[in-house]
């Protein structure tokens, strides 16, 4: 995974270098897929999966039991959701995923793909700027501003490192 991230962030030179390593890669077919939503019971545990496109076409979040919500990279408190990679789409994130995330109970315990785990979903919304009443346009402006700020910070780090 780290090598894939290096390849994407550093461009053609890094991809060419990675190809010379001749690393073994494997692809696995999923046992099951779902469209917008799936609900499963596993013993006494109730599981729900939700399609949350935007970060990628196949992004999904999972609610496990009555209180746990695993958001993956669809909601990372304090950070903009990355949509610049293949399959990412900021408009889909704002039009489909953000409204869905706002409908969830704020007391759910959030487990994002990165960052601090265990805060309430309501706290995660506040840190990400998804509080109720915010419009998609203002959410989009905040996401774009955070993305620009991240690019500026990364450029500064690269400039200092060189």
Q: Can you characterise this structure?
A:
Strand 3 (60-64) and strand 4 form a beta hairpin. The protein has helices at residues 2-10, 12-20, 90-103, 121-128, 136-161, and strands at residues 37-42, 45-51, 60-64, 68-72, 109-112. Helix content is 41%, strand content 17%. The relative contact order is 0.11. The chain contains five helices and five strands. Helix 1 runs antiparallel to helix 2 and helix 3 packs across helix 5 (136-161). The longest helix has 26 residues, at 136-161. The chain is globular. By secondary structure, the protein is an alpha+beta fold. A five-stranded mixed beta sheet has the order 1-2-3-4-5, with no helix packed on it. It starts with a helix and ends with a helix.
Q: Could you give the topology of this structure?
A:
Layout lengths: L1 H9 L1 H9 L16 E6 L2 E7 L8 E5 L3 E5 L17 H14 L5 E4 L8 H8 L7 H26 L1
Parallel strand pairs: 4-5
Antiparallel strand pairs: 1-2, 2-3, 3-4
Helix pairs in contact: 1-2, 3-5
The side-by-side strand order for the widest beta sheet comes to: 1-2-3-4-5
Query: Biggest sheet: strands, sense, closure?
Result: 5 strands, mixed
Radius of gyration: 18 Å
Strand content: 15-25%
Sketch the topology as an H/E string, one letter per element.
HHEEEEHEHH
Structure summary, number of beta strands: 5
Silhouette: globular
Helix proportion of residues, in percent?
40-55%
Which oligomeric form is depicted? single chain
Structural category is: alpha+beta
Q: Could you tell me the mean pLDDT? A: 76
* Number of H/I helices: 5
Low-confidence stretches: 1-9, 131-138, 148-162
Distance between the termini: 25 Å
């Amino acid at each position: 995974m780290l090598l894939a991230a290096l390849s994407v962030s550093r461009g053609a030179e890094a991809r060419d270098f990675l190809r010379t390593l001749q690393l073994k890669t494997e692809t696995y077919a999923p046992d099951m897929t779902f469209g917008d939503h799936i609900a499963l019971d596993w013993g006494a545990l109730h599981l729900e999966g939700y399609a949350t496109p935007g970060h990628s076409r196949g992004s999904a979040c999972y609610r496990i039991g009555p209180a746990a919500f695993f958001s993956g990279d669809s909601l990372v408190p304090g950070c903009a959701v990355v949509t610049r990679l293949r399959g990412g789409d900021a408009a889909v994130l704002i039009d489909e995923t953000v409204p869905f995330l706002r409908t969830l109970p704020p007391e759910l315990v959030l487990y994002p793909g990165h960052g601090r785990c265990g805060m309430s979903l309501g706290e995660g919304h506040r840190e990400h700027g998804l509080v109720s009443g915010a419009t998609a346009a203002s959410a989009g402006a905040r996401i774009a501003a955070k993305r620009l700020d991240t690019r500026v910070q990364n450029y500064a780090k690269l400039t200092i490192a060189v």
